[in-house]
Design goal:
alpha+beta, four-stranded antiparallel sheet, 2 helices, 4 strands, 18% strand
């Protein structure tokens, strides 16, 4: 069983993970996990646990995990946005075909404000991108 286990275990936390070194080569032949660090995904900070010094292997494993985790969270973010587009379409269909007057009264203002806010931000960001493209094109000419 020991050969199948990874050398490190990352216990996911709100903004990162607690990092454990996995040890199966002990005299009791039990799995032991020794916490060696805490990782913050948002700023990439790695804090050794207690008075530990991290080895190059520790740092490399943590950096690989951090890179993989950041990429996974980015994929999840965009997937959530694609789901939101689906929910907006489903909501439109519900409003058109199924919603009662009482249900519409309950959600209309909140939906209109949220959609107005979203539209305003999207339009501003699109304008910013178009202006940046124009500036790049003008700089090339």
């Amino acid at each position: 069983m020991g050969a199948d286990l990874p050398d490190y275990y990352f216990r996911i936390r709100e903004n990162g993970a607690a990092v454990f070194r996995v040890d199966t080569e002990n005299r009791h032949r039990r799995i032991e996990m020794d916490q060696i660090a805490v990782v913050n995904v948002r700023n990439g900070e790695v804090k050794p646990q207690g008075d530990r010094s991290l080895t190059e292997a520790d740092i490399a494993a943590i950096q690989n995990w951090l890179n993989d985790r950041v990429a996974l969270l980015a994929r999840r973010d965009i997937d959530d946005i694609h789901r939101a587009v689906d929910y907006l379409n489903i909501t439109t269909q519900w409003v058109q075909a199924k919603a009662s007057d009482a249900q519409l009264e309950d959600v209309t203002d909140a939906l209109l404000l949220a959609m107005h806010d979203l539209r305003s931000v999207l339009v501003r960001k699109k304008a910013d991108r178009l202006m940046a493209e124009d500036q790049k094109t003008a700089a090339k000419d």
